[in-house]
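Record now logged underneath.
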Amino acid sequence: MKARMKDMVRVATARLGGEQQAGAASSGYGRRESMAARTARLGGDSLRRQPQPQAPTVRTVYCNDREANAPVGYKGNSVSTTKYSVLTFLPKGLFEQFWFFSPVHPVTNVVPLSLVLLVSLIKEAFEDWKRFQNDMSINNAHVDILQGQHWESTPWKRLQVGDIVRVMPTVPYSLQYVSLVPSIYSFLKTANLDGETNLKIRKALEKTWDYAEPGKASEFKGEVQCEQPNNSLYTFTGNLIVDKQTIPLSPNQLLLRICNSKKWYRIQSDRKVPICSVHPMEQATIQCLGCVKSKIPVAKSYHCSAKCFSDAWQHHKVLHERASSALNENGAEEEELFGRFSSGGSGVLSTTGSGSLSNFGQNPGVNNGPMPSYPSGTDKNSGETWFEVGRSRTYTPTADDIGHALKFECVAVDADKKAPVGLPSSIMTSRVIPAPTPTPRRLIQVNGDVLGHLDLDSQTSSLGTFTVLSYNILADAYATSDAYSYCPTWALSWTYRRQNLLREIIGYHADIICLQEVQLNHFEDFFAPELDKHGYQALYKKRTTEVYSGNPLAIDGCATFFRRDKFSHVKKYEVEFNKAAQSLTDAIIPAAQKRMALSRLIKDNIALIAVLEAKFGNHGAENPGKRQLLCVANTHINVHQDLKDVKLWEVHTLLKGLEKIAVSADIPMLVCGDFNSIPGSTPHGLLAVGKVDQMHPDLAIDPLGILRPLSKLNHQLPLVSAYSAFARMAGVGYDFDHQRRRMDPSTNEPLFTNCTRDFTGTVDYIFYTADSLTVESLLELLDEESLRKDTALPSPEWPSDHIALLAEFRCKPRIRR
């Protein structure tokens, strides 16, 4: 993002005259209007009750054309907030004091009354004098307006409606404008009528970006059509008409009073900072001399610890062999070869006099775009040299910033003198590091063939197959520093994790995505619109009550996405276990125990069931017209480990519901989610085997008797865990041995899908009906040792405490019955 905020050209709107608005007109975003109105309403704070504006007529302001505006007779820009004048002070002041009457004794109260009146009038006079001084300060402050093809300094009070004004980055302004030309985003401090101040983002219309220079700006001719002055302080309606094109104005283009100057700096140092080639967040402490001798790019020779170097040794041996072969084949001279490797991207961050880093390649986690040139500055106290890199409230680091600290500097500006007030306030960041890149996970066929790394651009399901992803993404409401103290705060923040989650989910290129712990606001504001851009349709079911937080937006739930080009939505079922608990207690629990029973059973868990129709054929010539339906269940089961009976009851309730769907239609089924049940538990046994071992110790916990008789704990769905196919995989080799070592041979399930400091185990599953679906391939499992380098999950590399599971399925041909 471009950081420097250049001089900005603005157009003063029709509101710049008359009463002082104090920035109330744009304290929030407005509501949408109909297309027929062709206007954009700039609304007030969304939390306020919006007053209904009077029906205004159109007010037309001609930009950069005083002669055209003259006949209208707009008021000047002089601001007056005083209550009195020299002539009206005494009568109005006395009226203010005697606006109500009360019985007084004419003799004994005359002296006290006179004193009170005198003090009150002096107070009124002093306050009005301060208002007068403030008005004079604003009215006599100078502003640059466009006169011909040059800027001319003029007092505010002489500014007229329609003038084009230049707003400098360090100069505040005291009226409203329509923004025409910024360098990019402007971050402005605004003041509301209630005294609240906050920062808002403003950006000009793309249509007017070319009018930054005075010569070009002098050619600008446009019209601002807006409402007449009215009693609605929190709304504004207007359009900008340029070249016969009507462009709605939004809150992003309305500028208010007061602006602070903000700058970002990068420290300049001659010290080289090596970065670990395996863990780019860490500073290197070891360099592989074998890599140096083999003339391997120096960036690959650095490691952060002896263990890191040891773990990477096998990979290094391969690099050494390849480098030696290349050197022998090419016959290049040592200096030429070394130069060629070094220029490709060094892991040592060396700086040049211009403030840019040399020998560093592009990094996917930072902004690698061109940066504007800013002057450098030297700290007189420390002697450090700082290069200015931005002038905005926020700053996105670039590749040049890697290895350096950043400093944010903010200074208040005097509105009268247009000069900084006092010393700047500043904060420093820690060293900028490259964005961690998760280890690519491969899709492995169960017959032993490795498909390779997943690639969003090239990985697609083969004809007649589809992929399903199940992932607990860790809701932001649960991602607290208390629960995950080992994870850096910045890596735990939602603004960081959501980008990593989206990148990971999109990278898997699944046809069906089942997510758990998706907060309602994050679904509506982030996942649904972002995945819609990639061709997914969304379904969502929130939990039945707020958890931990009273904020209804912080409630989480299950979200199912599917590709519109591969599936169409047929039907949606929502399972609320709370309602099932109510029915159960009404049927079997005595009235005296209902309250206790509901307290144990109601845990707000839900399931989302979607019936989809495939748009790809898989029926063969015998059934060319048959619809291929698919039932996908996405659930999040109760997490409390001391409520084993409730877990089993919720899973049994879900399976009975799926059985009813299976009876009504011959349909393949997928059951995905976070079941909060390890392999060998009763819920897992019910899913995988179809019944529960009646001697299982977990069945001893049933204080309400909801599991009796035990014979009812069964189902007829032929469910099989997708990842159990790894145990049956018939491949031989390094990759296959690794996958088998990441499986538990006693349960045929992964060793873990949830990895925190306090718990490591499998609680997430993808089950499928084996009579109608077959597993083609599975996403490889992760190695616990590689995750433990950051203690546990989540981490800067992995955004959730769970790992994603993905399986590719093929529908079996239907058999006529």
